[in-house]
Amino acid sequence: MPHTRSAKKQLRKNQKRRLRNRATMKALKTQLKKVAATSSGGTLEDLRKEYTLAAKKLDKAAAKRVIHPNMAARKKSQLARLLYAKEQAAKSAPAAPATPTA
Length: 102
Fold this sequence. Notes:
By secondary structure, this protein is an all-alpha fold. It has a single domain, classed as CATH 1.20.58.110. Helix content is 79%, strand content 0%. It has three helices and no strands. Helix 1 runs antiparallel to helix 2 (44-63) and helix 2 (44-63) packs antiparallel against helix 3 (69-92). The chain is rod-shaped.
């Protein structure tokens, strides 16, 4: 336990920061999981929305130095590649099978 007044104050500040950082990380990880879930079973439009939210949360966490800015850039790049791959797959797949008319 801290003894001096300044050390006690620093401990209080660290505890508040820790809770704030944990909340930010929890929200970030949840959003990244949502993107992963949407990529496997959602529509392309939903994936774009989730990607946008994830990129925003990554940028905010990096700005607050909760995560390293390079990590945020790396994660955004990975998510963008995933989104691009899904878009390309949607473009190359036929829209709807043609029904034969008699």
